[in-house]
Amino acid sequence: MEYLPSLQQEFDEHKPSLFELLAEQQLSDLLPPSLRYLLAVATHRHPRYLLRILNSYDEVYALLSLIVERYYLRTFGGSFTENFYSLKRERVLRTKNGEIPRAQVGAAGPVRDALKLQSADVWKNLFVMVGIPYLKRKLDEGYDIHAAPHASLVTSGGPRYNPSDDLPANPSLRQRIFFYYKWFLRNVYPSVNAAYYFSVLAFNLAYLFDNTKYSSPFLWLIGTRIRRLGAADHRAIAAVLDPKPGPGTGRSQRPGGGLLGLLSPQNLHTQLLGSLRYFLPASIFALKFLEWWHASDFSRQLARKATEVLDLPAPVVAGLTSPAERRKSSIQDEKEKAKKQAEQEKKNAAGDLKPALKPPRRHQPPHIRDFLPSYLHCLFAPG
């Protein structure tokens, strides 16, 4: 009879608030652009190996999300980010109000086993968590490429669409599909996108005022709701993560079997996916720490104090001259250059004075025999 007071109160302690769900959704939406940025930075250093992955990032991320989310749904009952907030997903019973409070208080374990997601429910939730966001990202990208520029032209008085986008006379199947795809983006997708956001807003408001059990229209379609983890859930998760060995397994195990078991492909896959539970909070803490470090003045003060206290001498490398010797040699070279330049100037000045000191030459008048023929030179030859 100790659980009767809990049956009389209307407050549901396992129902998460809307703000918890919005925080979880915001964290889930921040993961794709963050990973894309890290991949883009790494691609600048290794473009040969990572450029193809960056070009097909949406497909690669959807595939990895499918693997990770499937493991977390089957093991922890919730998505990767929902497990960070201690949330889970469970089916809604087709009973009055969908609640069985008496059974939840008296037999929490069997109720958990009855409400946990089955194989079909896991795939439905994977479509909601991975498939719909992937389709929306691709449609948003296609709208920004094919429809948004033409919409801006329409507002400025331009044509409604590019005439080159018309369907040719004999179109191929690919051209026909691409034409109708662009027509859908221009004429139908804006209304579909608005209906999507309005439906999400309506369900959020209804969930906030406790008028529905579903925080999203897609959860209502697949009959799944989000709940907080209880004591029975924590016990079941601990039993899955830390299985107790049997009575005869300790002696019959061969030496090194534990290490080999951890390195086996099946266990390695499980250990790798399970370690993501600790990687996410560690990465968030590192991000917040770096934001604080760069925003505060503590790092600059610490660097300034470190440079004031430490007086490190310049490194000495064998085979290189010291700065003092280098200065002396440069001074000597300058003196020698100045001395040589002065001597050269003196030589140039002396060379310019020599023609001025020589006596002028006397020009003798020409002799008369220079104007006579050669056979008459004998008449004027000296005796």
UniProtKB/TrEMBL annotation:
Region (Disordered): 321-367
Pathway linked to the protein: Protein modification; protein ubiquitination
Record's protein name: Peroxisome assembly protein 12
Keywords: Membrane, Metal-binding, Peroxisome, Protein transport, Transmembrane, Transmembrane helix, Transport, Zinc, Zinc-finger
Any one of the GO CC terms: peroxisomal membrane
Family: Belongs to the pex2/pex10/pex12 family.
The Pex N-terminal domain, residue ranges: 25-296
GO biological process terms held by the UniProt record: protein import into peroxisome matrix, receptor recycling; protein monoubiquitination
Gene source species: Penicillium desertorum
A GO molecular-function descriptor: zinc ion binding
Location of this chain's protein in the cell: Peroxisome membrane
Subunit structure as annotated in this protein's UniProt entry: Component of the PEX2-PEX10-PEX12 retrotranslocation channel, composed of PEX2, PEX10 and PEX12.
Bilayer topology term: Multi-pass membrane protein
Lineage top rank: taxon: Eukaryota
Compositionally biased residues, Basic and acidic residues: 324-349
